[in-house]
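[Target chain]
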Amino acid sequence: MQIANPIYDVVFKYLLEDNDIARLLVATILGREVAEISPLPQEKTIPMEQRRFTVYRLDYSARIRNPDGGYEQVI
């Protein structure tokens, strides 16, 4: 049985292009409310002929609401 790594899954990449879905995912991972999220510039990778894999990296900056009502900026 083969299990796909979601980082390499085309559907997963497509979903994370939607800021609402990305915000939900980051909020779920952190266990805190994410007030807003924005994608940051991404590194580009070039597939090499001798390699069978490439790396896809997503970076976000998120503004998180604290329980006391304040905000915290995280990258």
Notes: The chain has a mean pLDDT of 75. The chain has one domain: 6-74. Residues 19-30 form the longest helix (12 residues). Residues 6-74 form one domain.
